[in-house]
Amino acid sequence: MAPNESESAVRRKATRYVVPVVVVGVAAAAIGLVPALADSGNPDLPKISAQQLLEKIAKSDVQQMSGTVKISTDLGLPSLGGAAGTFAPGAGGLSGHGGGKGGSSADPQSKLMELASGTHTLRVATDGHDRQKLSVLDSASEYSVIHNGDEVWAYNSATNEAYHAKHAGAAQDRAGKHDKRELRDGVPATPKEFADQVLKQSGKTTSISVEGTSQVAGRDAYKLLVKPKQSGSTVGGITISVDAKTGLPLKFTLTPAGGGKAVVDAGFTKVDFAKPAASTFDFTPPKGTKVTEGGDHKGADGQRGPRAPHAPVAPQGSGKMPKEMRGGGKNDLKVLGEGWTSVAELKLPGGHGLPKGGPGKGDVPPEAQKFMNALGDHVTGKFGSGTVFSTRLINALVTDDGKVYVGAVTKDALVKAANAAQ
Question: pLDDT tens digits, residue range 289-343?
Fold first, then answer.
């Protein structure tokens, strides 16, 4: 570390080195690996401080690699069954992204939402900033997103549909006109991306320490433990297993404050730092494939090209919401508090609370009403009355007068924040 470089500066620097192992990722901001991914030993490694390990992550610049990642999410949500589509952003069509009235089953905006629940196996490969591939493997099908130069393809083998778009930023990247780490702005799908988000959000409300060693995917690793100092957060702790040789995060585990299995646990089961074969990034639609052209869309940051599904969160410790979530309308978000117990406040359109279902009302589908009733818990306070919807990580309070308070905090902390806002 430079003589005048602060710990917070090093943390910020650590987030700048994003390994471009995928083009797109999952929703949420918030994903436990099966027991088969448990650490396979505790190697004897030289002692290292948390600061030194942060520096190792910051210096990591892995450009070529391939491997297999397993991701599993357990937010504690009730099973939606066939009603899952009711809540998917792409339900009913993806206007502007799918390129057609019905959208496309290969469009990343809709397909990758599936990674927000359950257990999934991903195969990833990268060769610099211009070539990446992500494949989601199912028992009888495969979904892949391939970025090769200025071309982006997504293919769903289950439906024989493909999504194609031009990545207009690629030529600008080669000309040095863009900061390459800004080209992907989506939800994390690898341990490195999860770690980047957490380190970026670390502040004075966070405790960071080294808690021993482990072995992940046959590689020796240090375990970095990130924990909130504040009470009231639903996050118990986050463990990041960092490759001892390259500084690349190999595994990410988020455990809830309430105990039990991990809410999010993503880790490599296989990893290889050799240059992937050039053919890995080649793609030609099979005969008979329905191809949807996504066009050359302009993203929220002014860049053109396809965008990953995006779910920004307020930086921990900053008390500020990202600019993507601050608009100029009446529904602007505010952030109450700071750090791990920060709560976002916004107004529902029309200033009304939740719509009600039931015979003759028809405001919401029966499946959606059943889902809300299963999660809801009626509460009252200075704010009035409302319903708290809970998962193992995120809680949201929807008041009867049309306000929403949401955060990775306990129900009591949520109600307290709503009362303080009056």
Answer: 999 998 644 433 333 333 333 333 333 344 444 443 344 444 567 999 888 899 9
pLDDT score at 69? 95
Both tokens of 291, joined, read 């191809």
CA-CA-CA-CA torsion for 208, 212, 218, 219, nearest 10 degrees?
60
Residue 276 amino acid letter:
P
Return the half-sphere exposure (C-beta side, CA atoms, 13 A cut-off) of residue 8: 9
What are the distances in angstroms from CA 232 to CA 158, 174, 376?
A: 44, 46, 20
Q: How far apart are CA 256 and CA 123, in angstroms?
A: 27
Backbone angles phi and psi of 54, in degrees to 5: -60, -40
Domain coordinates in residue numbering, the chain = 7-295, 323-420
Q: Which helix (H) or strand (E) element contains residue 417?
A: helix 411-420
pLDDT value of residue 95: 33
Query: What one-character-per-residue DSSP string does 58-78 give?
Result: HH----EEEEEEEEEE---PP
Q: Is the dihedral of CA 207, 208, 210, 214 positive or negative?
A: positive
Judged by DSSP in three states, 282 sits in coil
CA distance 22 to 67: 11
Q: Could you give the C-alpha distances from 272 to 75, 125, 213, 250, 275, in angstroms and in order?
A: 31, 9, 20, 12, 8
Alpha-carbon radius of gyration of the chain: 22
Long-range contacts of 402-406 (CB under 8 A, 24+ apart): 402/347, 402/348, 402/350, 402/351, 402/352, 402/353, 403/345, 403/346, 403/347, 403/348, 404/344, 404/345, 404/346, 404/347, 404/348, 405/336, 405/343, 405/344, 405/345, 406/343, 406/344
Task: Indicate the pairing of strand 161-166 with strand 290-295.
Answer: parallel
SS3 370: helix
Exposure string over 139-166, b if 16+ CB within 10 A, otherwise e: eeeebbbbbbebebbbbbbeebbbbbbb
* pLDDT at position 118: 87
Q: 50-59 and 7-14 are packed helices; what angle lies between their axes, rounded to 10 degrees?
A: 40
Q: Which position has the token pair 């005969």? A: 287
Below-70 pLDDT ranges, the chain: 1-41, 77-103, 110, 168-190, 194, 199-202, 295-332, 350-364, 368-375
CATH for 7-295? 2.50.20.10
- Which among 251, 294, 308 has a CA at the least distance from the CA of 24? 308
Q: What percent of the chain is helix, strand and coil (3-state, nearest 5)?
A: 20, 30, 45
